[in-house]
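Example record for the data management plan.
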Amino acid sequence: IIFLNRPLLLLLLLLLLLLLFLSFIISIIPNLAKPTNHILGLLQYTTYQMKLYFC
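Corresponding structural encoding:
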């Protein structure tokens, strides 16, 4: 708690967390490529159905 008062150390910790998060995302992106396409297709389908329903 004491060293959190130093803004530089806090900034370094935040940068480290950001790097870990980015590496995690980069490692997951290839696995998510197909599900995101599926989700996008589902969204397009639902918006199309809503257009048909409301118009």
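Summary line stored alongside the record: The mean pLDDT is 78.
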